[in-house]
Amino acid sequence: MEYEAVVGLEVHAELATSSKMFCACPVVDSTRAEPNTTVCPVCCGMPGVLPVVNQKAVDYGIRVALALECQVAHTSLFARKNYFYPDLPKGYQISQYEYPLAEHGRLYIRTAAGERAIRVHRVHLEEDTGKLTHVQNNGHSYSLVDLNRAGVPLLEIVSEPDMHTVEEVRAYAAGLRAILRCLGVNSGDMEKGVIRFEANVSIRPQGSQELGTRVEIKNLNSFRALERSMLYEVERQQRVLESGGQVRQETLGWNEAEGVTFSQRSKEEAHDYRYFPEPDLPPLVVEEEWVERLRAAQPELPFARMQRFEADFGLPEADARLLVEEVCVADYFEQAVQAAPDVPARSIANWMTGELFAWVNQCGEEFGHIRVSPQALADLVNRTQRGEINQNTAKTVLSEMLESGRSPAEIIQARGLGQISDAGAIGALVTGVLEANPKELASYLAGKETLSNWFFGQVMRAAKGQGNPQVIRAELERQLQARKAG
Ligand code: ADP
Ligand code: MG
Ligand code: ZN
After folding, report:
1. CB under 6 Å to ligand 1: residues?
2. CATH for the 423-485 domain, from 1.10.10.10, 1.10.10.410, 1.10.1740.110, 3.40.30.10
3. Rounded to two decimals, what is the model's pTM?
4. Whole-Å CA distances, 143 to 67, 221, 265
């Protein structure tokens, strides 16, 4: 029997606000700050303190919801999700349950199979938990609790079970990350855990419309883990069904080293959490005017921008995709294209995805910090296009531009790199080479025509590699013909 995979994703994204969700504690880079230094009675769960909603976090949440074409609720409610865990000092997490911030959205993806929309079920606000570190030390094992992360605003984005292939899952996850970064609400630094995935995976007979029993794989911190765990589960469930068994609904962990999922607990149901409305917070009311103000300020989103780059600039998908991944890169591209109207945009794209990206990767530099302005890149590509310098020289010039921040004109001038296209200058070089090599010239005239390539090489060498090849060819041909005739 052929099976179809069915996947729904729950994505937790930290919101890059300056303070926490319900208190004034700063949000810090959890990989850098000393443990338990950004905490207060509210996020530590002391009795008798009251939470206050961070308006910026609501702003960010609405912007994501709008980017996902959701309906933003006029009134949503915070709810307590009760459970005990050492990284949750209050004994409950403030989340949203029956009345989330937003619902009914979609995210557009493109895979080799084409473009489609994945439905977004809901988007809601909640708070992050602290962080546990499990230590093994001289036979003792213990756990450390860091509450710096406790209370950091989290946005949970829940998809419908609409994905069926690993390509779709990857495109959805990457597309969502791109939106979060584009909106500036999340850095997208997966290694820092600012985006975490939970994959709900089931399988069903190909063609069936019913949903099979699903498992939920928790705490996936990378695209790789997301994809591998999904593939592993699909295969495992297939084996279970094929051997006549039934898939158990359960919560799984993912062992990255061994590449296997493992059972954490049989699936808890929502009622296990004893959700109830948060008595310390009023309903969250979002007036129409607030939503419309944010809607008006939304930037162009990565998917739309990619489509526009393909349509308007004739970029291949791979280039368009790379260029829209970061807003500053896409802006750079558009500025460079504007500064070089006579150059094909594709060629600007090539210089960026080739040379500039390579340099940025190699230096571990951020693209936004490179010293070559879009106008300077445009200038360089223009000069190459006009034949003033050749492709190889242009690469040399560009690397010097990146190092020194100097303009192409300065570098070409200072290093005498201008390509020689002047017919007079090249004519003199050709004459010089022919006269300096009478033996070869005689063999050529006696019929050894292949020597013209050798002469070409000599002239190029005399031009220190900076001669315009077309001009040299033409001039060489002209003088050789003249000598044949003469
Ligand atoms: P919970 O809150 O208990 O995790 P939800 O009903 O909110 O459960 O669903 C969570 C996720 O599971 C959603 O992304 C949903 O699309 C997905 N999902 C639900 N049923 C299935 C299924 N049978 N197969 C795959 N994914 C599913
Ligand atoms: Mg879940
Ligand atoms: Zn606090």
Report:
1. 6-10, 121, 158-161, 200-202, 211-212, 214, 216, 270
2. 1.10.10.410
3. 0.85
4. 39, 20, 21
